[in-house]
């Protein structure tokens, strides 16, 4: 979470865009910025997970058999040109990327909104979310800072024992995809869709110091995680 916030801050400060894919060292629950911390206690499976509050909105994600992505875009053109909102735009990229390996998805349209669970994001259906076989498998949330945009999202690859009510792409489509493969496919499609050149990068020493500082001050702090 702190690393993604650094990407957002640097997008605002330096004008550099970034796209990051990652997994989690252990199954973890992330709460949306506005969710009450106590909401995770409604389910014994969720209550037993390590957890963190995101800087982005939306509902809770169980980060287990999934791919998490973070897209950070500076303000202004060409990054935010006033066209289709990035929530839907990046979902179209994900759908096109996975269609290349035979996975068929479609977006939730107006009138299909549902809230099937009080806590879990993948049981909240909102326009633009991606469905496979009528079940949600991709959702995203956003935060802005000085005109720059951070978009967080999750791509659900398979069912987790911590959220058995959520089927993933493996159960819904038969596609047994690895996280690294999905990240590569989406990055390639993103470059093709935007015409932007993606360059591999690593954290600098200053960035690592900044990430550690934000982690200590915010995401590892009880005051932040239990602020609601």
Automatic annotation (TrEMBL):
InterPro entries: aa-tRNA-synth_II/BPL/LPL (IPR045864), BPL_LPL_catalytic (IPR004143), Octanoyltrans_LipM/LipL (IPR050664). It comes from Fimbriiglobus ruber. PROSITE patterns: BPL_LPL_CATALYTIC. It comes from the Bacteria. Keywords: Ligase. Residues 13-198 form the BPL/LPL catalytic domain. This is Lipoate-protein ligase A. Coiled coil: none annotated. The lineage of its organism: Bacteria, Pseudomonadati, Planctomycetota, Planctomycetia, Gemmatales. PANTHER family: OCTANOYL-[GCVH]:PROTEIN N-OCTANOYLTRANSFERASE (PTHR43679:SF2), OCTANOYLTRANSFERASE LIPM-RELATED (PTHR43679). One of its GO terms (molecular function) is ligase activity. Gene3D superfamilies: Bira Bifunctional Protein, Domain 2.
């Amino acid at each position: 979470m702190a690393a993604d916030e650094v990407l957002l801050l640097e997008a605002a400060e330096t004008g550099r865009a970034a796209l990051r894919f990652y997994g989690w060292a252990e199954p973890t629950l992330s709460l949306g910025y506005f969710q009450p911390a106590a909401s995770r206690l409604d389910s014994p499976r969720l209550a037993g997970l390590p957890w963190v509050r995101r800087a982005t909105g939306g509902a809770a994600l169980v980060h287990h058999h999934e791919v998490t992505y973070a897209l950070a875009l500076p303000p202004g053109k060409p990054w935010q040109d006033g066209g289709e909102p990035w929530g839907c735009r990046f979902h179209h990229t994900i759908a096109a990327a996975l269609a290349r390996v035979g996975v068929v998805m479609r977006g939730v349209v107006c009138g299909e909104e549902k809230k099937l669970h009080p806590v879990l994001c993948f049981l909240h259906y909102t326009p633009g979310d991606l469905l496979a076989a009528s079940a949600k498998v991709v959702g995203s949330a956003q935060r802005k800072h000085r005109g720059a945009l951070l978009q967080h999202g999750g791509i659900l690859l398979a069912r987790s024992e911590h959220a058995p009510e959520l089927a993933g792409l493996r159960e819904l489509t038969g596609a047994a995809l690895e996280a690294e493969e999905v990240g590569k496919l989406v990055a390639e499609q993103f470059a093709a869709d935007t015409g932007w050149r993606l360059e591999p990068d690593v954290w600098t020493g200053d960035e690592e110091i900044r990430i550690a500082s934000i982690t200590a001050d915010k995401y590892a702090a009880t005051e932040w995680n239990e602020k609601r």
